[in-house]
Amino acid sequence: MALPSADLGDGTYRNPVLDADWSDPDLLCVGDDFYLTASSFGRVPGLPLLHSRDLVNWTLVGHALQLLEPAGDFRKPRHDCGVWAPSLRYHDDRFWIFWGDPDHGIFQVNAPEIRGPWTRPHLVEEGKGLIDACPLWNEETGEAYLVHAWAKSRAGVKNRLTGHRMRPDGTGLLDQGKVIIDADRIPGWFTLEGPKAYRHDGWFWIFAPAGGVVTGWQGAFRSRGFFGPYEERVVLEQGDTEVNGPHQGGWVRTKAGEDWFAHFQQRGPYGRVVHLQPMRWGDDSWPVLGDKGVPVAVHRKPRLPAQPPSAPATDDDFPGGRFGRQWQWTANRQDGWATQHSADGLRLSCVRTVDAHDLRRLPNVLTQRLPGTPATVEVELRLDSEEPGARAGLAVLGDAFSWIGLQREADGSVRLVHRFAESGAERERDAAHPREAPEGRARLWIESGAGARCRFSYDVGGGRQPSGQVFAATPWRWVGALLGLFALAPVGGGPAGAASFTQFRITSSFR
C-alpha cells in the first residue's frame, strides 16, 4: 500500500501533506493541475515530479533528470551533492526547472509537458557555490532575471542573495550579478538561502528562508525593482508549535484565487517532510502564512474539487523486472545492474566491487524514501549466485547503515546475514550471528518505529525470527535515511550471478 494520505476525509487535511523526504519543495499551478518538484541530490533519476488536483493528495508522475552531469562525476555516490533546491516554473508554454549544483554551477531543463520529454541539463552559469537558483520572467517587460544563494563550503560566502539579468530563453546570464539582499546587514538573520522570486501587485517578491535547516524561519522580501532595495519580514516561524524550522518552499495561487505555501520541516532521519500552509495578503499587503505566522497542524482543504485520497507509491511487484518511479539509484545508472524478464520480480546483478564492505560507497543500491511514520517494510529475496561472497539484501541506508539478507559462503551454503556500520566506521560488522538459509531464500522485514528506530527480522523457512539489536536510522548531512535493495560480489572475473526481489511492501502503522 502507499503511505497514508494527509486527507482526513472530512474537508480537512493534516500536516505534513508529504510525510517523507521531499526536500526543498517548489510547486506550480497550471490550469487545474498542481505540480511539485524537490531536491534529489546525488540520486538518479533526479528532479521528482509530483501531481495533485487539490494540493493535499499527491502522486509521483515521473522525473525530469535521467542523468546527473557531468556524468563522470556521478559514477559513484555523492549523497549530499548534485541537485540542490530546484525551482519549478511555467513560461512560454513550457515547464522549466532551474537548480544549483554546489560544485558545478546553475543548470536548467525544460519540457513542453510535465511528463516530458525533458531536455538534457544545460549549464546556465558555471561556478562553485552557486545554489538554490530561481528564474523570474517579467511578462510586462519581456525581461528575465535569476536569483541564487551561496554555499559557504564552496564559495567562502553565504547569507546573501545575488541577482542577475538572464537571457529570456534561459540559456545564460547577461551580467556578473549584484548582491540584492545581504542578510549580514539585517540584525539577527543568518544563513539566508533558498530564494523563490515572484511578481505580485506591482512588487518584486523574494520568498527566502533563513536561520538554518533545523531552527530557521521563512522570510519575505519586496522591492519595486528586481535589484532592490528590499524590505524584509518574517512571515512563518515555529512559535509554540512542534514544527521546527518551518521554511523554504513555494507560493501557489489556485484558480479560485486562494493562496497557499508549501515548505519543509527537518525531521532528522526522515529528512525534510512537506507542510502546506494557508496564505493570505494582509491589510498592509504583506503575506500572512499559517495561523498568523505559525504553522497549522490541521486545516480546511483548499476550495477545489474533491479528489480520492492518494500519496506517492511505495509498494512494488516489479512487473517484468521493471521498478516503479519511487526508486532511485545512488549514482548514475550503468547498464546491467537490473535486467528485464517475462515474470514479476526485480532481478539485480551481483555487481563486483572493491567496496563490498560499505554500502555507502555503492552506486548500484536501488533506494526509496524512508516513511515519516511508523511502518513495516518487507520483501522476498532469492540469491541466484554461486560466487563465494556474493550477497544481497534489504537496507536502511544513511551516514550509518544496517542491512539484512543472504550471502553465498565458500562451502557453497547460503546464510542469512545481518550487518551494520556506525557513522564514520570504515567497515561493516555483524549485527547478529549468521544462520543457514537452506533454500537460498528469505523473507525480510524492517519495522521502523518512533524516531526511525528499526527492528530487523527474517524467515528462512522456520517462521519469522527477530535479528540483532534495534538500529537507529541516521540521515546524511542533507539527505534523510533511505530504504535500499542491493546485490554485490567481491572483485573477480566474469558475471557473478544475480538476486531476485519480489513483493516489496510497506505497511503503515500510522493511525
| Helicity range | under 10%
User: Quick one: how many beta strands?
Assistant: 38
Net shape: globular
User: What gyration radius follows from the Cα positions, in whole Å?
Assistant: 23 Å
> Which structural class fits the helix and strand makeup?
mainly beta
Q: Uncertain runs with pLDDT below 50, 5 residues or more?
A: none
* Chain-averaged pLDDT: 97
Main β sheet profile: 9 strands, mixed
Query: How many alpha or pi helices?
Result: 1
Q: How much beta, percentage-wise?
A: over 45%
- Cα distance, first to last residue? 14 Å
Organism: Streptomyces mirabilis
Pfam families: GH43_C2, Glyco_hydro_43
Domain Beta-xylosidase C-terminal Concanavalin A-like: 316-506
Keywords: Glycosidase, Hydrolase
Write up what this structure looks like.
The radius of gyration is 23 Å and the shape is globular. The chain has one helix spanning 152-155, and strands spanning 12-14, 26-30, 33-37, 46-52, 59-65, 84-91, 94-101, 105-111, 122-126, 130-137, 144-150, 160-166, 178-182, 196-200, 203-210, 217-223, 231-236, 247-253, 259-266, 272-281, 287-289, 298-300, 328-329, 338-339, 346-349, 351-352, 366-369, 375-384, 391-397, 401-408, 414-421, 429-430, 435-436, 441-448, 453-459, 465-472, 482-489, 498-508. The strands form 8 sheets. Strands 23, 26, 27, 29, 30, 31, 32, 33 and 37 form a 9-stranded mixed sheet that branches. It has a 7-stranded antiparallel sheet with strand order 24-25-38-28-34-35-36, with no helix packed on it. Strands 2-3-4-5 form a 4-stranded antiparallel sheet, with no helix packed on it. The mean pLDDT is 97. The chain is built from 1 helix and 38 strands. It has 511 residues and is mainly β. It starts with 11 loop residues before the first strand and ends with a strand. Belongs to the glycosyl hydrolase 43 family. Residues 316-506 form the Beta-xylosidase C-terminal Concanavalin A-like domain. InterPro entries: ConA-like_dom_sf, GH43_C2, Glyco_hydro_43, Glyco_hydro_beta-prop_sf, Glycosyl_Hydrlase_43. Keywords: Glycosidase, Hydrolase.
